[in-house]
């Protein structure tokens, strides 16, 4: 499967150029096979893109702007949906491709699978082994009439209780690093979310600043279409 990215090589919009560069650079970083299809120099590419973008995904004026992304004939989305997928570490799902082993997206899928199915076997076994390790002295179960043997049983019981307490402390010590790692991961995730929110806010401000440029690009594309139609009519008239 080849990913198709429809671009406008001669776009006069800085915003569109930046979005196209962002998509291409990210796909190259992921080493995803893709093809660039220019709609500025190839009328067939332009018409194919506009015809295959779903109606519900088109803007109000009905003319989708580049970049538009497809997986062969299947529509993936525009820059906004691509950006959201990138922020969520779900680009491979967005592109309709399986995530490579070891990638963040694959790790997230594995974690989601574990959470969905549950995996507490190790903890259950550990608790079961801990209970099995507690042995009750034979003498204590059967009883004994001799005072010396009773004292020995008390010493044995105290020793076993101390061993049990030490084992519980070791078990708690093993759990502590895992809890610390989980807390560190939560802190890192919260920090990453804050950075993502800040980036989104910056992008929103930049989108507002560049909105007028996109509108100008749209007008240029419409004018080009009108000129093409007029030329075609003139040729037919001749």
Automatic annotation (TrEMBL):
This is SH3 domain binding glutamate-rich protein. SUPFAM superfamilies: Thioredoxin-like. Belongs to the SH3BGR family. Pfam families: SH3BGR. Residues 149-171, 179-238 have a biased composition (Acidic residues). Residues 119-238 are annotated as: Disordered. Residues 137-148 have a biased composition (Basic and acidic residues). One of its GO terms (cellular component) is cytoplasm.
